Amino acid sequence: MDLGLKNKVAFIAASSDGLGKAVALELAKEGATVIINGRNKAKLIQTKHSIEKVAKGNVLAISGDLANKEERTSVIESILSHYDKVDILVTNTGGPPSGKFEDLSMDDWDNTYKLLLASTVSLVKSIIPGMKQQQWGRIIAITSQAVKQPVDNLILSNSVRASVVGLMKTLASELGEYNITVNNVMPGYTKTNRLLSLIENNPSFATAVNEIPLKRFGNPEEFAAAVTFLASERASYITGTSLAVDGGWIKHIL
Prior knowledge:
Layout: E1 9-12, H1 18-29, E2 33-38, H2 41-52, E3 59-63, H3 69-82, E4 88-91, H4 106-134, E5 137-142, H5 155-175, E6 180-187, H6 193-201, H7 220-230, E7 242-245
Parallel strand pairs: 1-2, 1-4, 2-3, 4-5, 5-6, 6-7
Helix pairs in contact: 1-7, 3-4, 4-5
């Protein structure tokens, strides 16, 4: 199936590792020009080289912390200096600290806002003018299954990621007339360093596999396939949706 992604320019935030890396790799295989980003420059360059081995298009690496306003501005300026527009924007971040409400400080809440919501708003605001001008675009937020069914000990993620979903749903209404689709993808328990860290800090997370109908954790490649489809021409009539890639963990009907 031709997904129509050849020569499309895609920026994938927080893509030196984990789900972001898997998405960048999948988009590159489909012929997109990918721009990857991460805070660790050495790891980012390693990821760039690994993607280039299978890429059909160019791979650009831009280091920077998207939770930091100054670094985020520098990343955006660098993107737009290399390419005059971005066709596909995939917003993504690392996860905030785990813990219960009373264990967390106001600094934890402020930092989570900067990490999850402020970075997403800033990226979208910078990228949509080019999408509107060309009357085509894809905006995809990577959030979490926690926005539909809260996860114990992840109150920061449960709360602030939900605001990202509200943003995406509203943008889908505002940008539809410009042929820009806006969707949210909710990863479940997926075999990444983030999950390993959660299990190490709280062994109860390891038992979550028993709550998944498929009885296993997901692979990053399975998640990346869903995001890549939403970025494609084939998904041109899908907007304003939240897609769970969770092995059936979310139990609600709607």
